Amino acid sequence: MPEGDSIWRAAARLHAALAGRELTRSDLRVPRFATADLTGRTTLDVTPRGKHLLARFEGGLTLHTHLGMDGSWRVFGPDEKWHGGPSYEIRAILGTTGQTAVGYRLPVVELLRTAEEDRAVGHLGPDLLGPDWDAHKAAANLLASPERPLGEALLDQRNLAGIGNIFKCELCFLAQATPWTPVGDLPDPETTVLRLAGAAHRLLRANTGAGETRNTTGLRRRGQELFVYGRTRRPCLRCGTPVREVWQEDRPTYWCPHCQSGPVPPTRPNPPGRPNRGTPPPG
Fold first, then answer.
1. Residues labelled as active-site residues
2. Strands 251-255, 52-57: pairing kind
3. Residue 66 — very low, low, confident or very high, per pLDDT cuts 50/70/90?
4. Domains defined along the chain, listed by start
5. pLDDT grade, residue 279 (50/70/90)?
6. From start to end of the chain, where are the E strands?
7. pTM value?
8. DSSP E strand boundaries for 21-161
């Protein structure tokens, strides 16, 4: 699933392609907005909000999209062949005389009044990459449910917006706690959670220009960019213990059993492609 840093980069690409330009093509391929026409309107800006994208147009309209697990926005030149999936997976097209933005596999495509954007994103906590970032507020949100597992709390966009599965695993490693450790059981919870919120902000900010290769370790050697995510059975970069993996809620969770203390799931890891089914966290 795209995380806050990749959404930030997607917004930057869309803003560069569309902002200040009049739309010459508009096609929203979802039943509710199939007849909506944005042609002739100028794009004012494209803004990320957590894992959400808000494209604002003159006349007070906003196109709200969410990439879900595998959606994407791609930008093409006038003579460039579109690529990103078959045509039936296209959910939105926004074109100008110079470039065309095409949204593939978007689970959320919603046209709303700009003044009513809070209907779509008002529930989100402080945006890790936004102007409203507030580490103390994010920490207070996380501490409000001390019995909640740390990994689950980090993924809940109502607490702080922008963390996905990769950063969840990496942040739990940095906290030296398993993702199933209740927030209230962390050592000195108030201090630890505040530091973790600050670390989340720094990591996402550092990765806004990282392209497709995220880095949380500071190491530049290939295969050592992340502490635990995707490193099943490979040695921990700190202690050498094999990293473990278990599937939960349609996504894998990784941790080092030596460097991270706390509870672990009683079940054995599921084989790839056969995750336990569950409901993804809000946001």
1. 2-3, 51, 251
2. unpaired
3. very high
4. 4-121 (3.20.190.10), 135-255 (1.10.8.50)
5. very low
6. 25-28, 43-49, 52-57, 61-66, 72-76, 90-95, 100-104, 108-113, 244-248, 251-255
7. 0.90
8. 25-28, 43-49, 52-57, 61-66, 72-76, 90-95, 100-104, 108-113
